[in-house]
Description:
By secondary structure, the chain is α/β, with parallel strands linked by helices. The protein is 42% helix and 21% strand. The protein contains eight helices and 13 strands. Strands 2-1-3-6-7 form a five-stranded parallel sheet, with helices on both faces. α1 (11-23) packs across α5 (112-131) and α7 packs across α8 (192-206). It is globular and about 55 Å long. The chain starts with a strand and ends in a 6-residue tail after the last strand.
Amino acid sequence: xxxxxxxxxxxxxxxxxxxVVRRQQWEPHPCDELAAAWKLLREQPVxxxxxxxxxxxxxxxxxxxxxxxATQGELPDAKTPVLVVSSRSQLxxxxxxxxxxxxxxxxxxxxxxxxxxVMRALLRRRTTLSAGQITHGDLVLDPNSRFVQKxxxxxxxxxxxxxxxxxxxxxxxxxxxxxxxxARTGNRVGDGSAVxxxxxxLRRKLGDRVIQTVRGAGYRIGPVEAA
Length: 227
């Protein structure tokens, strides 16, 4: 069963997050202090961490950095997905957490459906990372190395463009709305207008037919064209 560490010192928010995890039929492990959370991470494997930033015994980013610096082959796994759930809405707080290795950032008060969607996306992303390269016609994407190739030529993408393309490839042939893409990328790509800009740039770099617009619904990866 998927195990989720919830590091949150507010009892009401913690109970809400525990409920979200249980509704996914996952196993929640709530903690309210950094020390207790680190002890659990050192003793038991977890599949995801929900992380508050303001805690009684320190900053949540301290735990985030310890996870990312973990030694290979020991607990915790340095690649464990970490979703920050914080009341700090300033752009700099979000950017700092993402730069330190957070996989997503949700601002309190939380929308429970959004938290659940981001969690599912991050776990799906971990599966994709383990699976290796994604191929779609003459398009090749490697989630681990962030390598993208089109017709044998390397394509340089920004972090946000890469995240949008990966989300769409993971969900093919399904259609994702702009809100879906935000959730699937851990809210790393900006608002809905920013998603539209990223799609525009991807079409310029990869060709107009790679990403299709589905009127009133969003975007999807186009079908593989016949040789």
